[in-house]
Amino acid sequence: MKTDKRLLVIIFFLSLGQAFCQITILSGPEKGSYNRFVDDMASVLSEKNGISLKNKTTEGSAHNFKVLTNPSSDDKMALIQSDYLTLMQAEDKLNNTNKTGSLKVLMQ
Q1: Looking at the predicted structure, is the pLDDT value of residue 1 above 50?
Q2: Which of 36, 62, 69, 82 to pair with 102, CA 20 to 30 A apart?
């Protein structure tokens, strides 16, 4: 039930991006659950709403975080485990940095 609500929230926010020709999401390893999750979202959104969603396979949450916080990266959307994001927020506080400050969380 919790996953269904999360999927609805993601679909809602992604449907706002219909003006874009394609939305890319950094997922995770090829055989991982995040990768399959993005593939499922892509098939549902393209069938029902005509939204082109691209699944970009990555090395996982740490890699996705590094890409999202890299100012020269064109990628703007990724799946990151909430515990990893919490760790990075704690590191920001300890190190007096603000790597997580510009990130927007769709769900947690």
Answers
A1: no
A2: 36
CB within 8 Å of 81: residues ≥ 6 apart: 61
pTM confidence score: 0.75
**Does 66 score more than 60 pLDDT?**
yes
Across 18-22, 46-50, 58-62, the highest mean pLDDT is recorded for: 58-62
Task: Kindly give the interhelix angle for 33-49 and 2-15, rounded to the nearest 10 degrees.
Answer: 50
DSSP label at residue 78: B
Reduce the DSSP state of residue 32 to 3 states and report it.
coil
Whether the CB-CB separation of 55 and 25 falls below 8 Å is answered with yes
CA distance 76 to 25: 8
What residue type is 83 in one-letter code?
D
